[in-house]
Amino acid sequence: MLKIGIIGGSGLNEIPGLTRLREETVNTPYGEPSGGYLIAGAGFPPVEVVFLPRHGARHDIAPHKVNYRANIWGMKSLGVERILGINAVGGIDPGLPPGSIVIADQVMDFTCGARQSTFYDGKEVVHVDFTEPYCPELRGALLEAARKEGSPVTASGAYVCTNGPRLETRAEIEFFGRAGGHVVGMTGMPEAVLARELGLCYAAVAIVTNAAAGVLGAHRLTTTEVVETMAQKTESIKTILKAAFPLIPAERHCPCKDALREARL
Ligand code: HPA
Fold it and tell me: 177, 170, 158: which is closest to 108 by C-alpha?
């Protein structure tokens, strides 16, 4: 059966409407994942959804403290080949007001080496290609699902990842915008590259929960705004995800599974 991993972000600690089957605890060589993996059934044709709340079931793991390696490794060890990451983001592009949903196609990583961001820090030297950071097949399914459901989404955009946990300064956001960034969050990386290093497919659904720092002038950013906007968008996210499941083919036709080909020195 098709298994789809979902890593939920701020304000998305569960996906209502899925039939909860069981919870799996996974031990990994990289330590503990953010919690147990919730296994649920959904859809027709049937799919198995493996859900992990990134910040823990009680939302007590900050973005810079998430064990991204354990989370992704755990997904793979449960037989997941496709992962969808759900991320709350700030809108850098003034054309992306709160409530916008972006299926990003690029990433800029400004976590600056502060996170464990590779599985290859031992003897083996591996450089995976990351020209296209997201799986084209998963992105295609998400976009087609949104179109079918009449849910407006922005079909491309560059996700800027900062280390946090503080929010950005006005100057940083202005810089990211000039550099070509559209949205900013704290969790998109290294999640995406770790999936690639294991040959897994990964795509992200970014929900704009607030205008990024300075975009609305002196507007002060609050986590209340982030959580409230995320709560308002839960239904739309669920609708898009559910519509995407049957559009994901059982066999992978994308380049993700071959990520390690000619990547070793
Ligand atoms: N910046 C960084 N991360 C975020 C933001 C933001 O404005 N909103 C939600 N996550």
Answer: 158
Per residue in 108-120, pLDDT (tens digit) is: 999 988 899 999 9
Mean pLDDT, residues 230-242: 93
Q: Is 186 in the pocket of ligand 1 (CB under 6 A)?
A: yes
Give me the phi and psi of 89, to 5 degrees please.
Answer: -140, 160
Structure tokens at 102: 């972006």
For 209, the token pair is 């929960």
CA distance 223 to 232: 14
Lookup: tokens for 100: 């916008």
Of the candidates 17, 6, 104, the one whose C-alpha atom is nearest the C-alpha of residue 53 is 6
Q: Please, how many CA atoms are within 13 Å of residue 256, restricted to the half-sphere of its CB?
A: 26
Helix (H, G, I), strand (E, B) or coil at 244: helix
Asked whether 214 lines ligand 1 (CB < 6 A), one says no
**What is the distance in A from the centroid of ligand 1 to the CA of 208?**
8
Ligand 1 site-directed mutation target among 54, 87, 89, most atoms within 8 Å of CB? 89
The Cα 75–Cα 135 span in angstroms is: 16
Q: What is the set of domains in the chain, with CATH numbers?
A: 2-258 (3.40.50.1580)
Question: Residue 218: pLDDT above 90?
Answer: no
Range 140-159 average pLDDT: 97
Question: Does residue 45 surpass a pLDDT of 80?
Answer: no
Long-range contact pairs involving 19-28 (C-beta distance under 8 Å, separation at least 24)? 21/48, 24/50, 24/78, 26/70, 26/73, 26/74, 26/77, 26/78, 28/69, 28/70, 28/73, 28/74, 28/77
Please give the residue that has the higher pLDDT: either 10 or 120.
Answer: 120
Q: Which ligand 1 atom sits closest to the C-alpha of 162? A: 2
